[in-house]
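A reminder from the course coordinator: this example appears on the midterm review sheet, so study it carefully.

Given structure:
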């Protein structure tokens, strides 16, 4: 009964602390939720080990220590990606305001950067517009400072033209972005490029507005699985 009471006290403290930290629109919500899971697991393990060592108060002490350690480990990848996301959003604020680039956080901790092909490539070409290379300079600068990620670059088109041509164009555009990043210091071993052609539209191809949304290059930034 004593260990149950001590663990309950520790859990209550942890719950109050974590609940007070997480707000609905908190940009670090993912990290804090993962930290909470880690803290709960750590508290259980710490309580058990602490109780074995000291029946009088070891469970409570172990739960608190284990909760703190578990919370730090649980936040690992999320914290790493939170920091990157904040830097991308700040560095690309002008492009985001002009609807040229979107920065999005996915549920699996990946970051997705979507680049509008209308402003990044010459019409019907895989040649990057010089002005847009400055945006990629910002992206590359951040990627080189966060080396614990891989970068998957995926090209997409609308359905105007043949399916074969669109597939080839999407692949060439993805490779063009990859080459710029590599030339700015991002290790080639981190970069994977592919094209999806017209196969994955995110809007209707029946309108020009929809086709413009479908012409894009997406960059998925994936954290290493062993980030602690």
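Designed residues:
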């Amino acid at each position: 009964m004593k260990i149950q009471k001590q663990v309950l006290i520790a859990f209550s403290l942890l719950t109050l602390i974590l609940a007070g930290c997480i707000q609905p629109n908190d940009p670090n919500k993912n990290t804090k939720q993962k930290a909470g899971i880690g803290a709960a697991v750590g508290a259980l393990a710490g309580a058990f080990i602490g109780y074995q060592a000291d029946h009088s108060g070891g469970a409570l002490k172990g739960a608190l220590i284990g909760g703190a350690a578990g919370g730090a480990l649980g936040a690992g990848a999320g914290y790493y990606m939170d920091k990157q996301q904040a830097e991308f959003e700040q560095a690309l604020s002008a492009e985001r305001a002009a609807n040229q680039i979107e920065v999005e956080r996915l549920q699996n901790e990946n970051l997705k950067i979507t680049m509008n092909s209308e402003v990044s490539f010459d019409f019907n070409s895989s040649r990057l517009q010089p002005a847009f290379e400055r945006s990629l300079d910002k992206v590359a600068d951040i990627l080189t400072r966060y080396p614990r990620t891989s970068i998957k670059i995926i090209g997409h088109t609308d359905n105007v033209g043949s399916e074969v041509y669109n597939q080839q164009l999407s692949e060439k555009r993805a490779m063009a972005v990859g080459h710029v990043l590599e030339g700015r210091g991002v290790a080639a071993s981190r970069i994977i490029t592919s094209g999806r052609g017209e196969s994955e539209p995110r809007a209707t191809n029946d309108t020009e507005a929809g086709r413009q949304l479908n012409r894009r290059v997406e960059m998925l930034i994936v954290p290493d699985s062993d980030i602690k």
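The domain at 92-223 is CATH 3.30.1330.60 (60s Ribosomal Protein L30; Chain: A;). The CA atoms of residues 38 and 70 lie 4 Å apart.
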